[in-house]
Design brief:
The chain has about 40 residues and is mainly alpha-helical. It has 1 helix and no strands. The longest helix is centred in the middle third of the chain and has 38 residues. One of its GO terms (molecular function) is transmembrane transporter activity.
Length: about 40
């Protein structure tokens, strides 16, 4: 039970990390596009 619980918590942590990284990448891409459009 302890191993399964720790495994589940680690999976949730990886999901949160992956989601935050995806959001961070999307924000940087949007800011880059805005900067490129303004510099034109």
């Amino acid at each position: 039970m302890v191993a399964a619980g720790s495994l589940t918590s680690s999976i949730i942590e990886w999901r949160v990390i992956f989601f935050s990284m995806a959001v961070f990448g999307i924000v940087i891409a949007a800011l880059t596009l805005l900067f490129v459009e303004k510099s034109k």
